Predict the 3D structure of the following.
Amino acid sequence: MESLIVILVGILVSVGTYLVLSRHMIRVIVGTAILSHAVHLLILAMGGLKKGVVPLLGQSEDGFTDALPQALILTAIVISFATTAFLLVLAYRTYKTNGTADFRELRGISDE
Amino acid sequence: MKINDVILRTVVKGVVFIILTLGVYLFFSGHNAPGGGFIGGLVLGSGIVLLYITYDLETVHKKMPFDFKKVAAFGVLLATGSAIGSLYFNAPFLSQTDGYFNIPILGEKHLTTVTIFEAGVALTVIGTLVTIILSISEDE
Amino acid sequence: MSVKETLEWAAILLILLGGIISVISALGLIRLPDVYTRSHAASKSSTLAVLVCLTGAFIYFWFHDGYVSIRLILGIIFVFITAPVAGHLICRAAYRSRVPLAEGSGEDELKPLLFANEDKPDL
Amino acid sequence: MNNLIVLPLIIPIITGVILVFLRHSIMLQRVISTITMITVSIMSFILLEIVESEGIIRLDFSGWLPPFGILFVADSFAMLLVLTASIVTTICLLYAFSTIGKQIETMFFYPFILFLIAGVNGSFLTGDIFNLFVCFEVMLLSSYVLVAIGGKKVQLRESLKYVLINVVASWMFLVALAFLYGTVKTLNMAHIAQRVAEVGQEPLLTTVAVLFLLVFSLKAGLLLFFWLPGSYSVPPAAVQALFAALLTKVGIYALIRTFTLMFPLNQDITHTLIGVMAGITIIAGCMGALAGRDVYTIGTYNVIIGVGFILIGLAVGTEAAITGAIYYLIHDIVAKALLFLIIGMMVYLTGESVIKNMSGLIRNYPLFGWIYFIVLLALTGVPPLSGFVGKILIGQGAIEAESYILLAIGFASSIIVLYSLLRIFLASFFGETTISFEDRKPIPKGAYGSFIFLAVTIVFIGVGAESLSVYVKDAVNTLMNPSVYIDAILKG
Amino acid sequence: MTFELAIILLPFIVAACIPIFYRRLPKKAIGWVVLMVPLSLFLLLTTYIPRIAKGQTFSNYYEWIPSFNINFTTYLDGLSLIFSLLITGVGSLVILYSIFYLSKKESLHHFYCYLLLFMGAMLGVVFSDHLLVLYTFWELTSVSSFLLIAFWHHRKASRAGARKSMTITVSGGIAMLVGFLMLYSMSETFSIREIISNIDVISEQSLFIPALVLILLGAFTKSAQFPFHIWLPDAMEAPTPVSAYLHSATMVKAGIYLVARFTPIFGGEMIWFWAVTGVGLLTLFWGSFNAVKQVDLKALLAFSTVSQLGLIMSLLGLGSIAVYLGYSKDSIIYTQAAFAALFHLINHSTFKGALFMMVGIVDHEIGTRDIRRLGGLMPILPFTFTVALIGSLSMAGMPPFNGFLSKEMFFAATLKITQLDVFSIDTIGVLIPVVAWVASIFTFVYCLIIVGKTFFGKIKPDILEKNPHEAPIGMLISPFILIGLVVGIFIFPNLLGHYILQPAMAGIYPTFPSTEELTPHISAWHGFNMELWMTIGVVILGITLYFLLKRWKPIYRWIPQRLTLNSLYETVISFSENVSESLTKRYMNGNLTHYFSYIYMVFVIVVAGVFFLTNSFEWSLVNNSSVESFELILVFVVIFAAVAILFTTSRIASVLLNGVLGYSVAFFFVIFRAPDLALTQLVVESVTTALFLICFKFLPDLTPERTSKRVKVSNGVISILVGATVTIVGLAVVNYEKFETISTYFEDAYNLAGGKNIVNTILGDFRAFDTMLEVVVLFIAGLGVYTIIKLKAKKGDADIEN
Amino acid sequence: MKETILLIALTLFMVAIAILLYRVIMGPSMPDRAIALDTIGVNLISAIAIVSILLKTKAFLEAILILGILAFIGTIAFSKYIERGVIVERKGDS
């Protein structure tokens, strides 16, 4: 399972990277969202998968699955949510003021 | 032409109640079961957002006249404040304590200071979520 | 077989039934010709699938662990209440955004009422 | 009491939040934020003294012993940077009061600045690698807002690029963290160091280390500095100064910490790589600075050169070089802040950013011009100003380690720094003045105050280098002997 | 006594006071006040002469940065004394001169402030024993020289000259600093005296030669040696007193000082000998050759200064051979070259100072320095003419002036060296006297030009219109004092030799036991020997060439303008600026997509490179948990959804698919026993999707990517490589099981933290700090969104772009 | 045996999701996609219920309820978006 997930992560990373390399804002932002999905899975996989029971005490007492990565992912999810929210707003403000959502047209330096 | 939303609104009135209850439940169950301040806050926040979706900005604002930025700020203050509190007791920063307290009506209850911290988290999440959605929606 | 055992089996079979219904409904979503008919597959049979399945799970937990899960009941009720509303809303939205009806759907009686004065769809 | 260590982070956060409630009383916001930063600076100084006399102190949050809980570790290196950063922020705030404008001030400008410095201080102090990520994010989120604050066309455009690149950088950080946790199964930096040393930094760990190198390079602007020139030239001057002073430095701090504490063992690969990257960075920075025709471009590429130069110190890795790197780091924080404050003021005074179009500023603003000249000399490394001690120590280290190519690149870069900054001086400050004495805009008093204070600091760091040496030596001692740090965390 | 420190500090203190107090003083007085500084210092320094002549040295030690061995050590010996006397002596005269030269309208406080700064720095250079402190003052002289050259900064030429001089001299200084650091790493000390005493250990090391070359670079740039001399003519944009002071008498001699100071260290090396001698001679020739073609009197003097500096430099090079040979009866004779160098150093300061002041007077009174517009000034400016005549003749090496003496000694030294057969002098050494002689001829010619073209011939009518008259007495005092010295030294050379030069020789040859032997008796007449014949030849040929000037001047046109060093310098600079600009613009083109591809490429190359280089790949399925069929389907669902996003053309579809991904990931969390994560992921995913939808009101729909196939392919390759890199490293990491995780500790959560949900106790207690900051992050984001939306730039705000 | 049947049921749900994914990808109209996504969510509810039986834990029951809520909110949001282009209205808008 771990290897399968790591390979899946690799595929997601490829897709995300390809989207990040696009010209259109929305594609890039969706790309970053996919990248963050991928890395959350990756962190989880790094702690070992299906190696124990749900990390809740009192249900059964032996061999919990690694809880630390879960806590880390939670934090990471929140942060990536915060970033994505900000990013979306920034993107549409940029679109409204600059009039384009194409990064090739948002260069600004050499076209002057 | 105004679109008729009667069905939606009727259902939502009930649903929001369920959602808010669930949010509070999740918030309190967090320490021993899945849930906690963050998820509780998110669920409560999405309940409020559902209201905004179903009704319109002004109507909801009349019912809930909070400045959600300040709600969020208050949440952060609560979370950090509970952490600072431990300085007063000369304990390491962020120290949490728990204990069993005998409260007159409710009987013996397990209370932890984590709850204050989590309440801060939840308030921040609600405040931030609604602030974001409202700010965008209010934009021209 | 004890009662408990029987009921557990019943629960599991309910769940299996749910699975089968859900595949059927999914197939319906693929095969049916337009969004309005697909919505029928989605909101009716899918909801049935999930209700059956959740009921199975509820029964299972009840008899296997002796645990009456309020959350599951709430979930069942919730899905039961909301699924029709969701189906309704999405169909209305589809119609208002002028998703065409499948060929051979018969006469569209709503059209002259709703879009009489408009030439362009607003989406 | 160890709880003191958290104050540089928590005080700005709490006051920042309180200021949100005081949104419309600008005067109060100013007073409170200034008091906060002064308090933080004083605290940091006290802490620095304590650390220097009593050794590394740490604060285990909630009382959980390492490696299980999160902890803040104050060693001299971190405290020096916290102190410098806090002082510089105080001064940038002072500058902001008189220049930033009411509109931005009511839009939570001061809270964002305070959150930024909280994130920066947290990054310096934390002893937990995941917490470092979180502190980075606190800093980055504030910086995202600060780049875009003002809402101008260019600002939004550049900030979007800045944010996106940093989002990808944060993603890489998480990937690196995942691999790190997957291998050493711990997050406490001292504990990581101990475990890495236990297996002698195996090849796979080196790969993880290299991943961290890239992540922090993105933050530090080492080789992967593409986000830097654009985003540093658009925000208000006070923000630019803070960015130039602090943001890249946090990356540099993380690099130094990572490769002296956690992954110091495979220097053949990691330090060579850092050296190569630093060399290319300097060359690219020099080319950019040479190409620059406007103050912003020249300034931002000078930031890049500075980054490369400091990291030569790390790449070389001898005691002298690390000492030099620390000195240069402190110098660079102060000097770059001043440089960007001045640049911002120049643009404000003339309404131009192309150096050809402003001329003769020194006629109307003599003191202003001379302060620029001091920065110019300091950045070139002319003694006895601040850049000098760090530069010679890095040079000494490079000679000891026989890395002559880095030595040559590093010292040759000083010439380009001089040349590019001199061009601004000659074109913009000297020459016929374009604005008559009567038409000139006055420089606000607060701005002058911050210029003078920073200039005095620059002179002090150079002339009074000895007074810093106790702390720097203590810092270097920790950096060169990771066991000091590890023992303080895991055996205390 | 700490007089030495006071000597260095006094100019700085006064310089610092000037900007503060100048408003309270009358304009004229400021000069007189400043004059007191060098004058008193000069007098103070003269009191040292007797003691130093006895062989005493004075050194003091002050701590600066003892932690890094940086200390302020003053050291006053004969060599320092010569230079410090020059600095203060010529300084006094120049300030006296400038009081009358500069008009009251100039910003005098700046001028004197810089001048004092320079003076202090220069004294610091010659008094420092510590290399880094020496370097400090060295750079300060460059800086103050920059400020003085740019004194009239509204002139474009001034700024250009200042920039050139600063760039070149500071670059040299930096090279020198590296050399110093190398010396330090070899000797573990920054003290020149200690290095000299450890010289045996140092000279064996591999860094010795690089250090030598780098330090020489510093000296050559400062002393305007070929090919770095190009800054000096441009520096003539400075006011004339500055040119007289810095750019002929003192600052440019700092390089000479350095070479003299380091002769005991490096003197024994062949490279040193040839570099110093060769460059010196080349400079001597090139300077004098180019001086002839100049039409601006100041430029002419500048080139003559270059040439004279070359002369002194080459003498020091010749003298260094004595260090190589070591102390013996035979080697003593070669030390005379160094003696001649010091002697000429003083002589040059006297006559060149006078000549500069003369040019200043001409410029001041006539209004031009162009020799094509000058002529016949002798009757109008008789005193000035006297200065010019004596100065020029001395420079040309004619008796009865001091230049003659040193010139003869120079010839003697060049002749003597040819008799040696070390360092392959026996083969190409013959060139030394030849070049020296040819250069002297040109020197003679330009000396004649100075006097002839300015003061003889017919007076130009437009000069007469201005009704010029002789300079005020104040301006004449200084040149006349100098002229007096020119003659005086010729008459009593040995006074100078005994009291001043002899102790200095001890500084150059500290290992030689007796300074008496090092001091030859200078006499004007030494019989009809080779040197004298050479001088006679110079005179004859020089006069001939002067009168045939028009015939052979076209030679100069043989060298095309493009190939001159000056234009070479300009070309190099503009070329590097242009190349950097085009290169930088090419990759820093503001296109985010490009930046991303660079970042990803570096990522792949570095990470995968290191990964394979270290051979870290290891993989086995042994530790993996099982895969159920439904999981496999889910994996495929995720993959299809992800790939479908690549091809979708509608923004909503891509966001929906992203939602599918998010839900699937949440389901993975369920399968992997992470209930809290699943909950959070579900909610966050929904909210994110909603946010996307809300923002779509303001965003455009997707447009097809109008990129070329090539770009698409390369993006595809990059992204596949990135994915592959993450995968292979990930697989290796999964396989890496050497450590026990720390999280088993948290399984005791209920006892430790009173909670049954381990993840939640980690978030709320063990790692509560993360959570706290995470909340802050969220808050910042919310506040930021609000700010970004509400704060819109007003119309009036000008966008200043880079 | 029970477990096998549960796994089969789970696989069936996954198959259904995979089929629905086709609808999400192919469309053709927005409502089609929204419906399909909603159905995916509903199917996931069942899947989670089965997984909790398999894992013998009650930890995921909250997730069921939440998923139900979110599927509902999401569908409402979509339908409003499709219908009006705006999700949160102001009073003046229609």
About this structure: Chains E and C do not touch (no CB pair under 8 Å).
